[in-house]
Design goal:
alpha+beta, Alpha-Beta Plaits, Dna Ligase, domain 1, 3 domains, 4-stranded antiparallel beta sheet
Length: 420
């Protein structure tokens, strides 16, 4: 979710110039919370936290009413409730979010085939070729917002600009429920006064490095020689920032997007130091990762482990597999081996499994398959899940009460469209 609380919102007038602003960034407003309000209108206007009400769940999303108190995603729910004691905590319903996302994405595809989903609740659209059919970018953006509201009951914010980077900046500034258009010839006027922290790829450490040198705005970046940027950020990042500050962004819309990684993680309600419990949890997470890989027709060459201890210290380990795989058993074996070699001075608060270095499953065919038996078992489980829902068939070791406070993917992706 965006980190803004809606304050400082900027929107364009109805007659705004949209010349050259053919790239749209569409971002749903407080998406998870908004879907929950659709399903329970009594929540409307209330501060809402999406997460588990007990234990140490983290905030998956929050309504703008809660954000005004400082509630943010990835914050422990307990901390969020201290900031906003009147908030209503709602358990996430990810199936509903996927259903709503699919409806929204289908509306985007009605306008143009050039849609690049970024996540479950945002996408880039290239509408430069749709002018003859639908009108100018501003007309299309207003039509999109109206269609999304009418058909789904949800609101979205849109930034329209000549590049992806500026369009995304504009949508963030227009939230919630707004439209901000930056015509091509006003790009530099828009960029100059903005904070360097608004530039794509500039995180807290990079921002601190720039600001310590007096480089606080994009205008300051423009006035800074390249060698100084390179020393502050490194040559690669320095070059990127130099171009973005000038409104230069060569990235095109990618309609077919391949995930770089697929992962799941779990935050426990109580710190865990039981090897049997942790081993079973690694199996469960690995099985979910494997199922998602198979659903995407992908295999992973690398398995990564993430562990967060009771003192919030976080460590990551990874291993390259002898052969790429989408078999949960194999992924789980690798994750458990990494875990077994890890020093554990404290009980564990969070554990995660991630598949990385993904490639098409068809690209890694082998003469023999050591995982053939497990592959058949897991494909049968996939079929049972498709017919009867997740959890109907599972490992015996995973039976029992849930121990975690969050069950969402660590980085949920947009759902695949229904086949026609």
């Amino acid at each position: 979710m965006g980190r803004g609380d809606g304050s400082g919102r900027i929107v364009s007038p109805d007659d705004a110039d949209d010349t050259g602003a053919g790239i749209l960034h569409v971002d749903m407003d407080a998406f998870y919370a908004a879907v929950e309000v659709l399903d329970n209108p009594a929540l409307a206007g209330k501060p809402i936290i999406i997460g588990a009400p007990e234990g140490r769940s983290v905030v998956s999303s929050a309504s703008y009413e809660a954000r005004k108190f400082g509630v943010r995603s990835a914050m422990p729910v307990s901390q969020a409730l201290r900031l906003c004691p009147t908030a209503v905590v709602v358990r996430p319903h990810f199936d509903r979010y996927i259903e709503s996302s699919r409806a929204v994405m289908s509306i985007f595809h009605e306008i143009t085939p050039l849609v690049e989903p970024l996540s479950i609740d945002e996408a880039f659209l290239d509408v430069r070729g749709a002018r003859r059919l639908w009108g100018s970018p501003g007309v299309i953006a207003r039509m999109l917002r109206a269609r999304v509201r009418e058909r789904t009951g949800l609101t979205c914010s849109i930034g329209a600009a000549s590049t992806k980077h500026v369009a995304k900046m504009a949508s963030t500034m227009s939230k919630p429920d707004g439209l901000l258009i930056i015509p091509a010839d006003r790009t530099m006027d828009f960029l100059r006064p903005r904070s360097v922290r608004a530039l794509w790829g500039v995180g807290p450490k990079s921002a601190e490095s720039l600001e310590s040198r007096g480089i606080r705005t994009i205008g300051d970046v423009l006035a800074t020689p390249r060698p100084i940027l390179d020393r502050a950020l490194g040559a690669s990042m320095g070059e990127r920032i130099w171009h973005l500050a000038r409104g230069e962004d060569a990235r095109e819309i990618q309609t077919e997007r391949i995930e770089k990684s697929i992962g799941h993680e779990e935050t426990f309600e109580d710190d865990v130091d039981d090897d049997a419990v942790l081993g079973a949890e690694l199996r469960r997470l690995a099985d979910r990762v494997g199922a998602r890989l198979r659903a995407h027709g992908a295999e992973a060459a690398t398995v990564a482990l993430k562990v967060r201890f009771a003192d919030f210290r976080t460590v990551s380990r990874s291993v390259t597999l002898p052969e790429p795989t989408a078999v949960g058993q194999r992924i789980g074996d690798a994750a458990r081996e990494l875990f077994g070699a890890l020093e554990r001075p404290l009980p564990i608060r969070l554990i995660g499994v991630r598949a990385e270095n993904l490639r098409s499953a068809t690209a890694s065919a082998m003469l023999w398959d050591d995982d053939a038996e497990w592959r058949r078992v897991e494909e049968a489980m996939d079929g049972a899940t498709t017919r009867f829902g997740r959890g109907v068939v599972t490992r015996a070791a995973l039976l029992g009460p849930p121990r975690g406070g969050t069950t969402l993917p660590s980085h949920p992706r947009p759902p695949a469209p229904h086949p026609e």
